[in-house]
Fold each of these.
Amino acid sequence: MDLRTALLRAAVARPHVLVVGGVGTDRLRARVEQEVARRRWPVATAPADTDVVVVVGRPGPELGAVIEDVWVGVPAPRARVQVVDEHEIVPGLDETVGTLGDLDAQRALAGRDGSRPTRAASPSVDEDDEQHEHSAHDDHGAEHGTEHGTEHHHHGGGTELPGGLAMADLAEDRDGLALDQLHVPLGPVLPEWPSGLVVDVALQGDVIQDARARFLDVEAGEAVERLPDAARALTSVARVLALAGWSGPAARTRGLRDRVLFGEGDTAHVADELDALRRRVHRSRVLPWVLGSRKSSRGAVLDALEEKFSSARAALGGGGEHRPTTTDLPALDARLVGAEFAAARLIVAAANPAPQPALAEPTSTEGAS
Amino acid sequence: MSTALPLGGAALLPGLLLAVTWAAVAADAVAAGRAAGRPVSWTVALGLPGREAVRLLVGQRRRTAAGDELLRGIGGAALLVAALMAAAVLPLGLRPVADLGPGLVWFNAMEVVAWAAVWLVGWGANSTVSLIGGYRFVAQGLAYELPHMFALITAAVGAQSLRVTDVVAAQQGLWFIVIMPVAFVAFLLSAAAMAFWGPFDAPVGRDVAGGAAAELSGVDRLVFSTGRWLLLVASSAMAVPLFLGGGHGPWLPAWAWVLVKTLAVLGVLIVLRHRVPTIRMERWTEFSWVVLVPATIAQALVVTLVVLGRGGI
Amino acid sequence: MGDLAPALVVLGIGVLLVIALRTLARAAAVAPPLENVLPHAGGLPPLEHPVSRFHVRWYVVTMVFLAFDMEMIFMYPWTLVVVQRGPASVVEMFGFLALLMAGVVYAWREGALRWT
């Protein structure tokens, strides 16, 4: 027994952390990420890789349900902590280490069955997607009959198929070939993904055929707390760099963002480091190559990166001449259609959409980033 | 004339590879900390591989709904076993565990098992992101494999043998890297690509939430990532007998030279990983086929002509 | 066959290593496996089983690869006889490779090597 406890303690001294926060929690979330990075704890990529789930702020009903579902899929040893205030971060994370190292607690906490508690209660998703499929198939109604036949399996309880899921159905791709199409809600718990965002996509292979983005727990036109422009731009840059597989500069960008948000006074120093980082990104020959030429769709990501740097620099310098562009969700949807998965992730990270306040003018979105 | 080690060497091989892997994992953690501007000390880093292994050993396994547990298990195990088998022809010093006549072909065959292994792991999880990761690796394989094979063949032409010990013996005077630098670079890049390492880590990338490994936890993840690390170590160690003179060198015994050179190659790959962003396979495919394949063919031609010019040997 | 014996021993050791790890994990794991987890794509459940016929957009590359790879199988034994056979074998082999390369260049110009 003692050996097992000792093993467990050794194992969990450096837990992998999954940080989940809703819309408007970005500031607190940045604090959590800063503390996690300071402890050199790795950030988990998915629930399977997670030891500690940190819930940032007070999630609304929709995100709350998602968090319950994600928690069910986290293997033991595991711990979960909710943080609603900056002062709770350090004691909260300390406490998880204790929970993780407690063998009896872990045995009690460990799940056995991964079926999701809230699966039955997600009608909004299914409704959305049903509309989707109808609109998607109106122009080629050949398979409509079979479409409906299988369609109803997953709505009607779905006990006859394992996991309550249907098999993928055929749909035409952009070249008119009939191929399997998957309907997957991407987000909100993905690495380098904007808080609270969900994009319902139809996938064929790794190509997105149809996309509809929405925010969880946000009423239309509701005002939401946002990060200051510089920090917001840097968050977006860090995500794009991390998704491009450049984790070192991504972490440095995050460090800069944290100093912009929480550091006192030394903005001159921050500006210098920002310029150094920007030069490094400029100098890289591989980055433009993997992000695409300026003409192709991924060139848009490169331009967005450049624009974020300028925007962060302008916000830091105090000169308000540079107004950061924002992307609204329909514009994002349009850009995602036809993109393959990796490109789509970059587009979302670069667009970094946020819920729009009701009074924002909706015209300034074209050619945003 | 076989110069294989006694059979006990076979028992020693996994231990040696794991020891080198341990060092490589630690070095990678240090390099990652440095790249991120949050340094990790060597003492912490050296404890890391053990800590992560124990973490995964005590971790709960998980099975996805309607996933193919058998295929996934076979995939994970195949990656690890294939890496060990590929390393069987590596001279540890001047003598390998198995001194096979067609040793280079054997290495090639074992390394290709990774294609099936990673794809099976990605497919078996019944998960969108892991499926994408698995297919990414197959596409990547199509891109890196040909330059890799031409690099192997170039070394074989240089030694006029497919036996790894003969290739080493042929480098007593001159290391092959001197007459076949292009093949060496192609081999190094493909070594990274076959272990989906460094700039070629799209199959397990962050954008697909861990890709092929996204749904793995506990011992499943341990077997998979150990297999991946072993493959990286085995393939970078293979660069030593092929291009860097194997165990030949002054002052030190042969085994020490092999170790030093292997660590140097691993060091280069670790630096590469932290300096270069991920190169996605659709980019790499074009570059590989249009630039690397002709370049390695030209390299093979040059070496063939040199060998002919010397009238053999 | 005698040469192959050590390789088979390594195979056995590899298999044993995997079995040992799994057995060790069974004893050391804090809990028995978590069954029936829904695949993760961000927290919300997918609507269908992800295992499906994947849209492999790079199938043309696969075809070109197959043609080339078959040739490579001939090239391995060729390395052993190239000196005995002399310049003729070099001309034959690299002439053949040049033909294949012409095919690759054609496929490249047709855009077969790009799929995004």
Amino acid sequence: MKTEKVVLSFIAILLGLIVAAGGFYFLQITKKTPSSQTKIVSTVSPTPTPSSSIFLTLDQPKDEEVVDSKTITISGKTRPDAVIAILINGVENVTTPSLSGNFSIPLTIGNGQNIIEVIAVAADGESKSISRTVTYSEEDF
Amino acid sequence: MKKILFIILSIILTYSVLSVGTYLAYSQTITPDINIKEQLITNIASRVAQLKLVEKRGIIGTVNNATNTQITITDLQDNTRFVDVDEFTKFTSPKSKGVFGISDIKGGETLGVLGLYNKDSRRILARFVTVLAIPKVVRGGVASIDNNNFTIDVSTIDGKKVIIDVGYTTSTYSYSREDDYIRSGFSKIQEDYSIIASGTLDPKDENKILATRILIFPDIPFIPKTK
């Protein structure tokens, strides 16, 4: 009789476990993931490789930037065989890029607004230009 | 009968205990998620406050319209920009000798505006407005040279013809791989050289530039199709 009770208790516990596990499983599969927690996987297309024609990109300075130093760095990338003319308010500075096409040059700007025009002229005569406005100001407002 | 009752009671008891256990375990796993979410919201809100909606910016543009509270300009990228002015806005003009204000600003003038740019409204609240005389830059190729009048006809990259007037004050430089960046002169300029010239627009002739600086590239031919 005692053994019978123990066996029945075990069976009862086992049944309870099965039912509880079933309930938990049901709870898990019906659980909704909030959209904010959903990971959005996007594929980023690789940076296009510049073709043989002239290209020019400027990393610095940003357009309409306000700076409190008169020396700024102008950096970017172009074709390695290009010559870079940087005109600050119409006054030119000439530099050449590295073998990888990168260039970086510190230059002095004037008070107030400065128009910086970067022109890359390739050896075959092709050219490209980018213009930026950089303002020197120490005013606090 | 007792046996059956015992079995039923055991099942109910076990299920109840396990259900409570499962619920507690589930609620414990949910609580950190809610905490993380709240933490994230707080962090984002504080970050947004840090980034601010306004930033200092300096723009240049040509005046389209000016009223007592607003100036509409076209910037260097041909975008229409709205500039708000208030009692704190300071106006200056190098040509003006006396008091200069918004009522003195005329359409077509080039302005430099320094102020607070609102990223939301995309308007700039001007703190300093200055009338500028920005140099005109021309790049292209030498089409012809007039040795008598000291002018150069330049074909620009967009197919236009511009006359470059070379005066006594014009500084001419040359760049080549061999000689690097050297001082040059009007006599060294030849047809088909690539050229960059900067100066002021002739008030009498809008196709003529009174050059202040010229840069020539003797070993680089000019290609009109480039942009």
